[in-house]
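**User:** My hope is that you can spare some time for a protein that puzzles me. I have put the entry right below:
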Amino acid sequence: MVGRLVECVPNISEGRRRDVIDAVVGAVRLTPGARVLNVQSDESHNRSVITFAGEGEAVAQAALALVERAVELIDLRDHRGEHPRVGAVDVIPFVPLGETAIEECVGLARRLGEQIWATLRLPVYLYAAAAAAAHRVRLPDIRKGEFEGLAEKMLQDGWAPDFGDPHPHPSAGAVVVGARYPLIAYNINLQTTDVMIARAVARAVRESSGGLAHVQAMGVTAASGLAQVTINILDASKTPMARVFDLVRVEANRHGVEVAESEVVGLVPLDAIVDAARAHLRMHGFDRGQILEFRLLE
């Protein structure tokens, strides 16, 4: 049984220097009670996704240690990558697992935000369930303008940070901290190097442009050189992975392009994979209780 646990999935703005990534992850490993579950880096995005879990307070302390190390080692003035970012640590979501309530994660996010500003003088924005204002719920809205436009943005009405002065940290920018339910980070590479096609497909897929509910998407160039639709599925129970994949394939076909491959970034809930198998294999009545390994772990 999962019990009362919290998952944390920080995204740091470093995907190329292995020594830096290892040092940042090492700060989490040294925190008692925090277990590192997955580290995934992308050179073209120049970004790493780190997943760890444990009891709430241990996870929050590990997140603070991670931020301290990242601020020491990552300088956004020298950073270039495909993925939008506002900080050396771009985003820190707390995710409830098992019997943990989202409200507990909101509390962790807000306390961590206060600590980050107090100890590191790094401005903090709150987002998702922890957001203090409706226009800050969506991460892309906070990221708009990125690190390079952050100083100007912070002076605009409604865009002062939730914690800290309205001036970016000179090398680390700002950090976005929040609480959310599990999402799926999912990349689909297209059989083309034309990134404009990926951007057109992303517009057709994402909710903000009239596409699928609970889906965020943008078009970038992958490390392989292929055009990539990089996607966040915010609620896979309402918009399954298979539905997203099928629409990307249809929209890519409109441009005469096939899907090359897809990949999950970080970890994915088992139910999402079961749903995808059920949809594509047309397995009537199949459920997770029919998975051998799952039954053995009960």
The mean pLDDT is 95. The chain has nine helices and eleven strands. Residues 102-120 form the longest helix (19 residues).
